Fold this sequence. Notes:
Number of strands: 11
Order of helices and strands: HEEHEHEHEHHHHEHEHHEHEHHEEHH
Mean pLDDT: 87
Strand order of the largest sheet: 2-1-11-10-9-3-8-7-4-6-5
Number of helices: 16
Oligomer: single chain
Structural class: alpha/beta
Distance between the termini: 60 Å
Radius of gyration: 24 Å
Shape: elongated
Bound molecules: adenosine-5'-triphosphate, magnesium ion
Amino acid sequence: MKVPSHTSTTRHLGSCYPLFNDPSLECKKVFIGKQYFGGKFTYDPFDLYSLNILTNPNIVVLGQIGRGKSSFIKTFLLREMAFGRRCLIIDPKGEYGPLLSHFGFEPIVLRPGGRHRISPIRENDNQLLYALTEIGLKRSLMPLEKSALDLAVCNAKRKSKDPNLRSIACELEDPLLNDSMPNSVSVTTLLEHSLEMSLELRRLLSSDLKGVMDSTNSLTIDYSNQIISIDLSYLQGTDSLGVGIACVLSLVEDYLSSNKITGGFFIVIDEAWAVLTNSRVANFFQMTWKLSRSYGVSNIAVIHRASDLTDQSNSSVKVGGLLSDSETKIIYAQSESEASNATKLFNLSLTEERYITQLPLGRALWKVGSRSFLVDHLLGLREAKLINTDQKMDLSISGEH
Ligand SMILES: Nc1ncnc2c1ncn2[C@@H]1O[C@H](COP(=O)(O)OP(=O)(O)OP(=O)(O)O)[C@@H](O)[C@H]1O
Ligand SMILES: [Mg+2]
């Protein structure tokens, strides 16, 4: 069959073939790799923001397991730091150590026997405490239960400047009514509601949270370090991981709200899907996300699937918040079953939907504002040493232990 040739401009061809020959972004830093259809690819959210190409500097990185998401982030930060940018990583897998030691720093590790503790008890609200209790009870709190927790916090704060989860559990077991409770609520009624919560808190304190969240906050972060990492790997695999991440974020937010950040600051939440498993933690996460521009911060969240953002009960809140406040989406390979979700959420074209199911390791579809790029993330030889997360796999394949 002979098809008559057709000549068209690349601008017009772009309407049916969106990835066709889009020139690079206008920023000079940092080098990411090469575009699959030709040309280098550079990206820097702060430069693009100051050039009015982006209206917010936040980034969502999405992709199946082992597709190069964390490797991209590690090398991206490494390259950004050459330009004086700073970063703080919340690291639920404990895999950013080599990157930190490259710069002569150590991660802050939260584990039993360690120096640091985090606490869900905040100055102004009890949302993280509600979330932790809900995670323990595996259900939402009833209004009277929330009131019982509020009362326990209030009483614990009256007795001590720095209450902890144990003192909250004690107050739940021995409630002292105050004016905030209606007269119709008796101590016996309150106890009926608070006992289950205190038992659950005590169970968490002697298991998942032991040595990590069982005392007042003692996590001190030296923000003068160019790179900071909080290793939460002890909580990995527990339902409390999301609350742990939120506790750290809450401390960081306190710092950001009272200090002026200049020169570009990245906050990375690797394995951020964990914070989306509880709606309260997700709402908290979304609020800190929204503040990024006013703080001069670029937040980077890593999730596995588009449905991480939609499966939850209050999906509209999360999707609306995270996505509308993240103008850069970096999409690594998705399974066939996830591709249509990603298409809906990220407004992908049919061509892009087809591509994201076929992306090899290290290649991603970048959506930067309204523009799309297919990018191969290139690694330098020295960088490769900092990113290998396959070490355990390598050992088991070669039979070493
Ligand atoms: N651009 C790349 N080029 C070559 N190899 C790569 C590239 N990116 C990652 N790798 C290799 O793939 C392995 C897995 O990468 P990485 O840990 O970044 O995946 P991930 O998507 O973060 O996985 P997970 O979802 O399990 O966290 C790494 O050990 C690294 O050696
Ligand atoms: Mg990873």
